[in-house]
Design goal:
CATH architecture: Orthogonal Bundle
Helix content: over 70%
Strand order of the largest sheet: 1-2
Shape: globular
Distance between the termini: 22 Å
CATH topology: ABC transporter involved in vitamin B12 uptake, BtuC
Number of helices: 15
CATH class: Mainly Alpha
Order of helices and strands: HHHHHHEHHHHEHHHHH
Number of domains: 1
Largest sheet: 2 strands, antiparallel
Radius of gyration: 21 Å
Number of strands: 2
């Protein structure tokens, strides 16, 4: 009976906290300044991309450096189709385009392992960026495009909706047989293949699913910018940020990448504002410190604190008896 109550608490308390946070975020534009809305939109974008990245890279152990490619596809989809289609349809088209690109790239490259896959995915970002730049400059005799602007509150609510869908997708994949198969690939890919798991198909599918939300995020974020070009849309830094944010938070727990992305994104915005000339140096020092002293990320500290608290509580109970 006590065990049932404990499991019930473990299920309902995180759900209740999540619901309260979601309500607080949904009502935020009614009582906060425009700057807070813009800041939280950026933070939600980074969380969304980081969680999307962990859908594939977390359980499989494959380090993908392609987020900027899928995000950029979403940005350019919004720039090209923003005048012709309603915004929700543009976002769906961007997600589908990113899914198709990831499906093609995954089918071609997910037989590669380790550093080779990471290098190829980062090369994909640079390849698309340079090709679009050549196409615009040589064929179209222009560079970049103007984007249809959207109200900041509308962008915030759409980003929040995509964020919720991303979290639910990541959560259910993690708890499904599909997620269990992905974890077995990460633990021992050859053993998983010997047990009858179609490892290539599962990797390609997970890779493509993760790209959907990156493309959708790019499509809605593009509406914040008056002008975009290949350097803005396919910024290489965006491929590394999800990796660093996930490592900072820790990938051992579901909430780790969310926590890491939220804190990391806020820290980036704060340093950009307060230390515009030195922020990259400070950022680098913080990253090195995290890698050296927090190998399990923030979730490692949280788990350690919980264990200490439980040991302290059990010691007090034994002392009382």
């Amino acid at each position: 009976m006590d065990i049932t109550k404990f499991k019930s608490k473990n299920f309902w308390i995180p759900g209740l906290i999540s619901l309260v946070l979601l309500i607080a975020l949904a009502t935020l534009p009614f009582y906060s300044s425009g700057y807070i809305v813009v800041l939280l939109t950026a933070i939600l974008m980074y969380i969304l991309i980081t969680v999307s990245w962990t859908i594939f890279s977390g359980p499989t152990g494959y380090i993908s450096l392609a987020p900027a490619a899928f995000f950029g596809v979403g940005v350019y989809t919004s720039a090209l189709a923003g005048n012709m289609l309603p915004l929700p349809l543009v976002i769906c088209v961007a997600g589908l385009a990113s899914f198709c690109l990831a499906l093609l790239v995954g089918a071609l490259t997910l037989r590669l392992k380790g550093i080779y896959f990471a290098i190829f995915t980062f090369g994909l970002v640079l390849l698309i960026q340079r090709f679009l730049l050549w196409l615009e400059m040589t064929v179209m005799h222009t560079r970049g495009r103007f984007v249809v602007l959207v109200d900041d509150n509308v962008i915030f609510y759409i980003m929040l909706a995509i964020f919720v869908v991303t979290l639910l997708t990541a959560y259910f994949i993690r708890r499904s047989k599909f997620g269990l198969a992905l974890q077995s690939i990460g633990e021992d890919e050859e053993a998983a293949a010997h047990r009858g798991i179609n490892v290539t198909l599962l990797k390609v599918l997970a890779f493509a699913i993760s790209a959907i939300f990156m493309g959708a995020a790019g499509a809605i974020m593009a509406t914040k910018w008056t002008y975009i070009d290949p350097y803005i849309a396919f910024a290489p830094l965006l491929s590394f940020m999800p990796v660093l944010m996930a490592l900072f938070g820790g990938m051992g727990q579901f909430y780790g990448p969310i926590l890491g992305a939220a804190i990391f994104a806020y820290l980036q915005e704060f340093l950009k504002t307060e230390f515009s000339l030195q922020y990259m140096l400070i950022f680098g020092v913080v990253l090195i410190a995290v890698i050296l002293f927090l190998p399990k990320g923030l979730t490692g500290i949280i788990q350690w604190a919980i264990q200490k608290w439980r040991k302290g509580g059990s010691a007090e109970q034994h002392a009382g008896t």
